[in-house]
Structures are given as C-alpha cells and as structure tokens.
User: Fold these one by one.
Assistant:
Number 1:
Amino acid sequence: MRYVSTRGEAAPRDFESVLLAGLAEDGGLFLPESWPTLAGEEWEALRGLPYSDLAAEIISRFTGDTFADGVLRDMCRDAYAGFATPAVAPLVQLDERRFALELFHGPTLAFKDFALQLLGRMFDHVLARRGERITIVGATSGDTGSAAIEACRDRANLDIVILHPEGRTSAVQRRQMTTVLSPNVRNIAIKGDFDTCQDMVKAMFNDAPFRAEMNLSAVNSINWARIAAQIPYYVYAALSLGAPEREVAFAVPTGNFGNVFAAWAARRMGLPVTALIIGANRNDILARWITANDMSARPVTPSLSPSMDIQVSSNFERLLFELLDRDGARTAATMRAFRETGTMPVPDDAWQGATSLFHGLAVSDEDTISEMRRLHAQGYLADPHTAAGTAASHACAPEKVGVPIVIAATAHPAKFPDAVEQATGTRPELPPHLADLYAREERFDVLPNDLAAVQSAVRSHARRNG
Ligand SMILES: *Cc1c(COP(=O)(O)O)cnc(C)c1O
C-alpha cells in the first residue's frame, strides 16, 4: 500500500512514512494510491467481531507491512480497552430510523480518542524500531489537546508540548490537559487566542534547524492515520444495522471535514452508504458549499459547538482531489486560488457529482438548544455538536432516503455542561474516571506571545536533549 499526495508532486510513500510525516512535502495531504475494497462476504465476516478486532481488520488494509502480524490487532485491543463501555462505540436508538453512534466513551470524552489512542501507540512502536525519538508540538482550542496528551502520556519515545490560549478554553477542557502530570507532557498557556498558538506552532515547524533539532512531529487532523482509524466505527455501525444487505446514511457534525471524510472512505471501500449529512454551526462554509457551491471563508465566530468553529476545512482537500479525478495539479491550483482569494473555485460538474451524496445544514445556536431540549424530552442527553448532527439529519434527509440514519455523537454531554444545562435544565455529570477532575493538581506554564520563549520551553522539555 503506497500513498500519494493530493497535490501530485511528492514521491509516493508507505504508511510508516505517512504516519511520521503528516503533511506531504508539496503541501498536500496523503491518500492511498488506490482504495482497498471489500466484497459482500468480507463485510459479513466482520459482523459480530469485537470492536477492536474489526478496527484492526479495516485499518490493516491501509498499513501495508508497517506492523508485523498480530501487532496492529494487539495495539487496537490495548487502545480500546481503556474505553468506558465494552461496546466501545455503542449504537443508541433515538427514533424509528435514527441512531446515535456514541463516540465519546474514550478517556477524554470526544471521538478524537478513537484515532489518537491508536496513533500514540503506532508512533511509539515505529519509533522504538527506528531507534528515534520525537517531540510532538500542537495548538488546541479544546478537544484535540487533551486527546493527544492522553494518547502520548508516559510513552517512551516521545514528548509532547501543547499550547492553549490562556483563559479561552472551558475549565473541563483545560483541566483534562493540565492535570496530566506525566514527565513527558508539558502544557503552555499562551497569552493570546487560538490563532496565536496555531501561528506559533507553524513558526516552529518552519524553523528548519529547530525542527530538526527537536525532531518535531504533529498529530493534527490532516494525518492520514487519524482518518484511517475513524473508518472502522462507520463500518461497525452499518454492519450492526444490516449492511452489506441494507443501506445506511450517516449524519456527522464536522468542521474540518475529517470525520465525514472517514465516512466517505468507508463508502469508497464498498460499504453501502446512501447519504452523508453534514451538521455545521453558524460557521457554515461546508453547508454553503453543499447547497450552493459557495466555498468562501468568512470570519470565525464563536458558537455553542466550539470544536466546529472553523472556516478552513483542511480535510476537504482530500474530497476535492477525488472529485477532480485525482488530478494533483488541478487540486493544487484550486487550493492556491482558495488561499489567494478566500473562495474555492470547485468546478460545477465536480460539485454536482457531490450533491447526490452529500447534504448539509448550518444549525444556529438557537436551533442547537431546541434540538438538545427536544432530544432530552425524549430521554436522550446530547452535547451541542451531536445535536447539530441530529438537527441536520431531520432537515436534510430526503424522504426517499428511507434507510436508517446514524448520527455521529462526537462528545459526551459533560464536556459542554453549560450549554447542556441551558438547554435542558440538567447538568450532566462527569463519568467516574473524571469525577475528581476539579480536585486534581494542575500544572502549566504561562508564556507571552514570544516565539523565542516558547522555543526555549520546548527545548528544555524535550528529553532527547536531556
Ligand atoms: C473535533 C470535533 C468535531 C469536528 O471534527 P472534524 O475533524 O472537524 O470532523 C466535532 N465534534 C467534536 C466534539 C469534536 O471534538
């Protein structure tokens, strides 16, 4: 299995090198050179497997010979053993045709644990074999940082430094990061906003000597391995509802297009998926694209679903490449135009092709609240991101799509207690493993918006220097 870049200039690589590199040298994103597909009886053979074994079967189609026999399966078992329910990704029926696929039973209560718990283990395994050590640096506005820290803590071959904007994450989100006191974890609160943190991370990556000295690496959502690790739960849900004989639709609250692209990939592998419904919030670039081929970035404004407060959906480039018949030069030109003008000129025929599969809706804060209230009245407590997904599934599912709709429930309601309480009057409780979160010791540095100061903090932290 080899990987190509969406911009067509980078040399093909294997899975291991894609895992470590993240982004291709030409600025593009990696995709498999050809998609693996499964036949009817192969899907059926997966039905009934425990989640982690099913995940290993699917992911092994993408990892080539990076892992010896049995290694990937053991990593998956280990990664998902830490989830709070044996089902790992339980499916809860909401009404006659709707099901919530609960992706929030991992250690940090959001779906990002599915990919990052596995990635931490993949990194450590590959680095040990290569005799290398890396420093992971990332910026977070909330959920990614805690999932990455939880996945990397105490791993032998990597150190991790996460920057967050001082005072701008929720208390739950901050404490999920800053109460991890493992020696290989360091949190830095930056005096600035999320963009300040993000710019600082980019500057560190662009500083070639520093990058080489620290052996910097990233775990952000453009890493192909993250998408690959998100495909299995769509397969698991569809098989539970009767695939490959029966079709399903998925509704996904998404901002960066990562999670919905994983659903697209499952379909590309042969899973019978009739519709992909995107739930957006007021930052509605994806919904505007699907309804009107208007992919123009506007300023980001805060919403009740902060993990979707995004106007540049980095993973969209993967779909674009596919819509343009895998023409890297055209993909690169389209992305360049987007960067220069703020509007992405997706050709009409490519867009038309996508509209038969994709549907999208921008859900306002008011509608998110009333959807949470409605679900609660029916006995289901949803977080605001999940509610955007269910609301979109009601508005967009065309009647002809008479198939079950699976909504990706991306966060635990206790991760966003204020919004949930505002909508339902019920304040969700943190699950047992986090019940004492507010009593735990926090540790983090506060640094000014000063690259040199942050670089020196990273340098002193990285054990490769120690
Ligand atoms: C990250 C996140 C999302 C958005 O995921 P994409 O990568 O943009 O698809 C949605 N909901 C929650 C709770 C998240 O943490």
Number 2:
Amino acid sequence: MPIMACLQSCTWDKLGDKKDFVLASVEMGRWAFGVLILLWVLFPLANSSVDGLDKVRGVNLGGWLVVEGWIKPSLFDGIPNGDMLDGTQVQFKSVTLQKYVSAEGGGGMNVTVDRDVASTWETFRLWRVSDREFQFRCFGGQFLTSSEGDLISATASSPALNETFYVERNDTRVHIKLLGGNYVQATMNNQLTANYQGLPGWDDNAATFEMTIAANNLHGDYQLANGYGHDKAKEVLMKHQRSFITAGDFAFLSRHGINTVRIPVGWWIAQDPYPPAPFVGGSLESLDRAFSWAQFYNLKCIIDLHAAPGSQNGMEHSASRDGSVDWPSPDHISQTLDVIDFLSARYVNHPALLGIELLNEPSAAAVPLDVLVSYYMRGYQIVRNYSSEAYVIICQRIGNADPMELYQANIGDSNIVVDLHYYNLFDPYFDDMNAMENIQFIYESRVPQLQSLDSANGPLVYIGEWVNEWDVTNASQLQYQMYGRAQLQAYDAASFGWSYWTLKNDRMHWDFEWNIKHKYLLLGSSSMKTPNNFVWLTVTCGVLLCALSGMT
Ligand SMILES: *[C@@H]1O[C@H](CO)[C@@H](O)[C@H](O)[C@H]1NC(C)=O
Ligand SMILES: *[C@@H]1O[C@H](CO)[C@@H](O)[C@H](O)[C@H]1NC(C)=O
Ligand SMILES: *[C@@H]1O[C@H](CO)[C@@H](O)[C@H](O)[C@H]1NC(C)=O
Ligand SMILES: *[C@@H]1O[C@H](CO)[C@@H](O)[C@H](O)[C@H]1NC(C)=O
Ligand SMILES: *[C@@H]1O[C@H](CO)[C@@H](O)[C@H](O)[C@H]1NC(C)=O
C-alpha cells in the first residue's frame, strides 16, 4: 500500500512538492523501503535507438592520449623541480623590504617591490626553459625582461635570453639571476634591478626573496613533456600509452554493455611521429590500436579533439602552457581544421568510427560564439567531404553559455550531435547539496533541459561526459548507486546517448572500472526498450525520491 501511494503521489507535476514524499516515506515500513530499493536498483534501464543503431552507452578514455595529471599523478613524479612546471603561478616577497614584487598595471610598465599583499599584478606564470631557468609572465601577458639596463621591467611581448632567469632555491627562499650572472635585488627605492654586488647568502639580504607558489594546477602534456625534456618524456609517455589502456579494458567494456569509447586526442597527433616541441609522438599509433581493439570487441569510437592549438579553454586537458586561451585566432583555427582533415582522412572509413568531435569544451569567456560556429561549420564540411555517415559532434561552450545557442546555429544538415557535459561539481552551487538534493537536481534541472533539447528539432543530444561523483562527503555505497542510477535514467533519454568520464582514474569514484567492480554504479541491462523514456523517468524518479526521503 505505501508503495502504491508513494508511486502515485510522485507524478512528474509534483516533483517539487517534497511534503508528499516525506509523508509517504513516514508511512513506509522498513520492509517497504527495502523492496523499493531492490525494485529500483534491479530494474533494467531503458534504451532505444538512433537511426537503427543502439544509442551510445560510452566511456571516455580520459588521461590516455591527452595527459591529465590529476587522473594519474605519478606520471609527473620524476620531473626535477617538479613544482615549477609551465604555468605554475609564483609570487616573490623581498625579505629585506617585506614587500611583494609587482608588475605595475599587470604588465607593460615598471616592476616595483612595494606591495603588502599579493594579487594578480604580483603573480607571475612560469615558462620553464630548464629545471632551473624560467621566464616570468605577468597578468597582462608580458614577460619580465632585463633589456632596459639594470632595471627589470614587465615589457617584453615574447621571451628570449633577456627574459630568461636562473632561479636558485633554498626551501621557500630564492635568488634570481640573469643568465649573464648578475643577481636581481630589491632596491631601497622599491625597484627591481639586476645589479646586486657579489654572491648573496641565504640570510636577509636584498637579493633574497620568499617564493610562494600560488597555484600549481596545470599538469598536462605541455608540462609533462617540457618538464622531463624530449627523451625522458617520450619514454614516460610510451610506457603510459602502452599500459594505461589495453585490449583487456576494451574486453571489460564490451562485457559490461558499453558500446562506444570517446577518445580524447591532442592536435599534435596530426604531426605524429614528429610533432612540434615539446610535444612527443606516439599517440597516433595508440589511436590506431584503439580502433583495432574496438573493432575486435565490437565497440565504436568517437575521436574527440580535446586539445586544440593555442588551447581553447586554458586547462591542462587542452594542453595549455600557462592557462591562456589563444585558440580563437585565424592561424590556430586553420591549423585545427587541418587536424580535423587529417583525422577524417585517416579514420572515416574505419568500421569502428562512429563520429568526430570537432573541439572539446571551448571556454564561453574566451571563445566568441560566432568564431566557434564558423569553425564548427567548416569542420562539419570537412568531415562531410569524406563521409556522409560519420557523426559530427560539436561541444557546448563551458562556463556561462546555454547549449540552445548551438541548436539555433544551423551548423550542418545530417548526423550532427551536440555534446553537453553534466557534472554536479565545479560550481559552488553544488557545494552544500546532500545526496537527495543532488539526485533531485538531475530530475529537476538536467531532465527538463534534455527534454527541451531533444524536442528542439535540431542536432541529437549527447551527454559526452558525466561521472558518478559529487561534493557529498562520505556518501554510502547505496547513495552512490542511487545517484548513478538517476543519472543513467536521465541520460539514457538523450537522443544520441552518453559517455562516462572516465575509464580509469586514481580517484576511485571517477574510475569507471572501479565503480563497476565495486558495485557503486549499477549499469543494468541495455536490452529493455520502453516506448517513452520520460514516462519511465517519472515513475523511477518517484520511487527514488521516496526511497531517499525514507533514508533520512
Ligand atoms: C617607472 O619608470 C619611470 C621611467 O623609467 C620612472 O620615472 C618611475 O619613477 C618609475 N616608477 C617606479 C615606481 O619605479
Ligand atoms: C638584452 O639586454 C641588453 C641590456 O641588458 C640590451 O643591450 C640588449 O639589446 C638586449 N637584447 C635584446 C634582444 O633585447
Ligand atoms: C639554505 O639556507 C640555510 C640558511 O637559511 C643554510 O644553512 C643552508 O646551507 C642553505 N642550503 C643551501 C643548499 O644552500
Ligand atoms: C572537399 O573536397 C574537395 C575535393 O577534394 C576540395 O576541393 C574541397 O576544398 C573540400 N572541402 C572542404 C571543406 O574541405
Ligand atoms: C568522513 O569519513 C572520514 C573517515 O571515516 C572521517 O575522518 C571524516 O570526518 C568524515 N567526514 C565527514 C564530513 O563526515
């Protein structure tokens, strides 16, 4: 009885009315709760098809051909001075003046040593030349230079020898000297000059600075390759590419009903085996292997251009050197189109190819919509030039952008897909949500968005990234199962399908294989078909919310 009452009260219209659920759950005995959970967890998932194909039930091969340090931190373990990689943000405080070094106006002018507090003008991004030699990039993009005599200024637009400094470290203290040998000091009138007399000790003197590492969050291909240097980087990456993902993983995926892998690649793959420094070759051969494994285990591949020249989002997974976003320039865009041409020519007739994703996660703040749409249109044409079948996948901008913007853009006529990434993470909005609120968010926010896009009579919808992780601390296995099930229910309704981020990860809750083996994510069967995903969602959502309120 209470089960029926609950199911009936939980219609779609009433989702917002929590009182009903609470009342219903109070009536529920423990047995009823148990049965509900069992029913809900055991129910197979709905699955329907796109153009006669099964929908995509995919997994991303993240951190494989495009490095992401947080996925496998040990890749960076052997880099000398490994906390001073490209893009690391540092601040310097004179130990004699007790003031921070500052690029006036963020760059383009003098450098002073006169700030009590370090903020953007006082923060410099490293460009690493060797493990002891660095260039310092200001907030405005200029580099510190010694080209104006003794005075250090923040006026160089590109770095060369006069912009390269040798850094000696002793714990948190540093000396900075020119390649010519002169040490940099903070003068009594608050300037930064390269004329310290003699060899400074580590006591409180004008050439000694306290270095603070303000941010050290870039661990991508650029940092790895430039940090190790070419030969060692090649060795580390070869080993990684051969061991991180293997044929055995494809067998595992196929056993668990996964039908697609989304494979992030970097732009340098098009110049394999000799890409421009510091990038190293090898990813093309690995991608070839992935296609063979996919064919053998009857999986499809989506090639995802995750890292574009210049970086489209400033993050490590777009191989940004220092956090800047330089992709939206005609040169970079034309180079990117060449990469799409290369990938299309090579893979479009491979039986395992499902589609090509033109660009992952362009930044809404740094990539104007018109620039992106024009790129997508040209990319679509290139893929279509080789194939009328291959799906062309375009990714929504990340940050403040409505995916509807791509539905209205008219990018291509056929087999076009918009990729949305759904994480209940990376936004303070989710910080204080408990398990139930997270699940409610899936049904009350994600599902309606999916419904409106699915019915927009435009491109297909693809949840190309999602994960069974959230900001809830110490959640139980059952709570994870419910959250995972809610997401699967919701994303199964996407017209193209979904792919989990990611196959392997040092953080277990992000690791697909860990989730499956430890039963934190219950995939269910993919064989059952339902006529209407959203009716199905309504019912299971009701069961779920009842069960959750019963738990608290
Ligand atoms: C900045 O440089 C100009 C010209 O070299 C100089 O006149 C001025 O005093 C400098 N300002 C500081 C704060 O050092
Ligand atoms: C490098 O700096 C010196 C002075 O410190 C200057 O004479 C020289 O022209 C600079 N070189 C370049 C390429 O700017
Ligand atoms: C680091 O500084 C301390 C004094 O603060 C000194 O005793 C030590 O020898 C220094 N280490 C190196 C490697 O220079
Ligand atoms: C399509 O292919 C033709 C013939 O190879 C070529 O001339 C044209 O530039 C290509 N179009 C695009 C958008 O690549
Ligand atoms: C989570 O669990 C750990 C280990 O049991 C415990 O130390 C920690 O306090 C818990 N955190 C919260 C927020 O409950």
Number 3:
Amino acid sequence: MLEVRPEIAAMPGYHSPQVDVPIRLNTNESPFPPPQAFVNEFVDALASISWNRYPNRTADGLRAALSAHHEVPAESVFVANGSNEVLQTLLLTFAGPGRRVVVFEPGYQMHVQISKVVGSDVIVIDRNDDFTLDRDVVRSKLTEVDPHVVFVSSPNNPTGQCDDEELLDVILESTSGLLVVDEAYAEFGTWSAIDRALSSDRIVVSRTFSKTWSLAALRLGYLIGSPTVVEHLWTAVLPYHLDASKQLAGEIALNYTDEMNDRVARIISERDRVQTALSALGVRVSPSSANFILFSTGLDADVVWQRLLDHGVLVRNCSSWPRLAGWLRLTIGSEDENNAFLRGLESALETE
Ligand SMILES: *Cc1c(COP(=O)(O)O)cnc(C)c1O
C-alpha cells in the first residue's frame, strides 16, 4: 500500500519562488561571482580526477585545507553537500524518531523541516517582538523540554541579528543535549562559537560556502566540533556522499580567502548604507549582522512585495512565516542592485 509518512504528507515543502526578474535579492546569495582565477584553477584541476574511482571517502584534502583555514584539528571537521546536509546528518545522528528538537522563532525554517523529515518532535520557543530572546524563558522552557538537539543561528536568519554569546552558556546549562550553532552568515557577524565547539562535546558549529564564498551552486558545507561527535557523523552519512570535484573546488576556494574577505567587506559596507537609507525612509529595520536585512514598512507586505516586483526587484516575502506578519527580507546585492531596490521601495511607499 502506498502510504506517505504523515509527517511528510503534512509538509508544505521548501518554496522560494525563483521568479525571472532582473534583480533577485531573495535567497541571500552573494551578488558577486567567485574570482575568475578560482574558476580557471578549478576547471584545470578537473582533468586530474580519476573519474572511474570513488572519491576520497572522508574528503581528506578538503578537510586538511579547512583545518588550516580555521586552525582546528582535521578530526574536528566534517563536510557535506551544503550545510543543510550537515544539519540533516546531525539530526539523523542525535535526534531522529520521537526525539525532541528545540528551535527559536523567527528562525531558519529548514531546521524545523529537516527535524520533521527525520521524525523528531519540534518544540518552538518564541522570540520577543524585537526578535531578542528572554533568558529566563529560554532557561525554564529548555529545562522543561530537555531536548536532544537545540538550534541557534548566529547571525539569525531571517532577523539578521546576533544573539548575545552568553545565550550559548544558558542553553548548555539548561540542557544535556547537543547545541548546534548554525553560522551560515558568521563572516558577516560579530562572534563565532568555534572555540567553544573545540572544547566541548555538546556544541558544534555549521558553516557553508553558499553565502560568503560566492559558491551557492557548489552545495558545500561543513561542521566544526569535537572529534567524538564528528566520528559519529561519518557513521550516519552515506558513503562517498561528497563527490571528487566538489572536494577539489572547496580545497581550491580556500586559496582565495583574501578575495572572499574583500567581498564580505563590500557587502557589509553596502548593508550598513542600505540600513541607514531604510531608516531614513521611516522603515522599521531589524538590525542586521548578516548579508540581508529584515524590514517592515507598515503597509501590507504582499502589496509592497508585488510593487517591488513590478520594479524588477525580487525580495523574500516573510509575512506568512511564524511571527513575521508584515516583514520582508532583502538580500544585500551590488551597489546598483541596492540602489534599484531603494528607488523601487521609495516609489512603492509613495503609491497609495
Ligand atoms: C542559507 C542558509 C543555510 C544553507 O546552507 P547550504 O550550505 O546552502 O545548505 C544554512 N543555514 C542558514 C541559517 C541559512 O540561512
């Protein structure tokens, strides 16, 4: 009998409309392509792959490069197809059917979705109206739930804010499970939990090449944690999950750290400029430490979204997400794209 699991049947799935418009500022990608020298080096390197052989199963070259980049032991590094697969592997290893996962909302919806796909129960702790967290609420709720896994994103998507680093201690003190710090945007932010992850079995950090590294098309992410945790992840993940070309691409990309830092700096300066311009328009902004800005105009979000689209600018309409009625999310683009957005928004706010 064909019977879909009820958890899957109940799911809306992941929908980020990829509308064909000139200016796409909806999925937090980098507006800049990676350096041409990287592309050339990668294309040349493809010829050296033994295509008839399975790839290095534990991606040793790539992990050595990541270990050097972050100055962490290679046994503390796990790699997968995007940080989403890192998170899925974590959940298969530490959560799974009937176990409890805690998320804070508004937050990254894939944390909820992947948890449900692996059969876990998701418990939500709400953020305050300004998207901060109340420590006493966090402490008492976590003590009550006693979760197997807790997710924190820092900076948080979609709010763009960084929680206080001390939140991590509050979580660790109130639980006995695994704390996953999703650092997809950490290079734009103010702190990292990598040091903590190296000194505790109970905390791990996930990172991605999708945002800062201008390599969303590559689907490459990684984790930094204790060797014990990493060892278990290798057991749960499919054998040879990471293909040889991707391993090479990641390894080569890490030779272009200066170019990546340069891109990050340009985006941060644009972010701060756009943030100031939005405030000047009287728009409410969630202070961002990431490469995107969550904002609310006071008008109906569906209307503003459509008017921006009429100007050829696609942003993310978050108004149907938990606790985000009225909010839209702008990914920081190039200077020209950001100016087009600001012009579009100004006129969207003038139209009645
Ligand atoms: C974009 C994003 C990711 C996605 O990572 P991939 O490496 O592309 O799978 C993970 N976490 C958060 C919070 C994100 O916003």
